[in-house]
Amino acid sequence: MRFVLDTSSLINLRELEWLDLLKNPEDIFLCPEKVEQELQRKKRKNNEIFKLSEEGVLSILSVSHPIVFSALSNTDSDAISLALENNSTVVSEDGLLRENAIRYGVPAIDIAGILLIFYQEGRIDKSDCLSRLKVLFENQILSKSRYYQLLISLRS
Prior knowledge:
With 156 residues, this protein is an alpha/beta fold. The chain folds into two domains: 108 residues, Rossmann fold (3-Layer(aba) Sandwich), CATH 3.40.50; 31 residues. It contains eight helices and five strands. Helix 5 links the parallel strand 4 and strand 5. Helix 2 packs antiparallel against helix 4, helix 6 runs antiparallel to helix 7 and helix 7 packs antiparallel against helix 8. The radius of gyration is 15 Å and the shape is globular. The relative contact order is 0.15.
């Protein structure tokens, strides 16, 4: 699968020490240059993310045909634009970004969505998926209602 990651998802994956989730040769992970620029502001904290780029795990691309979404930042608009250009799914913890992407016909998920996909494809087992969802909830990255919704769907 192809995924376009925004700043919030990359930072959360780094903070949770889950960047290893991106190291699957079956997937292509992209981010727009503007995300890289945001990460550069705190480069020392984000060295692990830049290593992914150096290793070829994360490709940083410029947007050829940017679309401006008035409700979104330029960075978020670029994430959607890059996903459109590369037939990708946007990964963001920002609900407004995901809503705008979906309205524009771009699939959009959060980190929990990646966990579900990886579980469904057999890349992580159920206990790993459940424990990671709990971590997302405990770190207030995942809302209570979404957490319970996901628990119910995984138990059926």
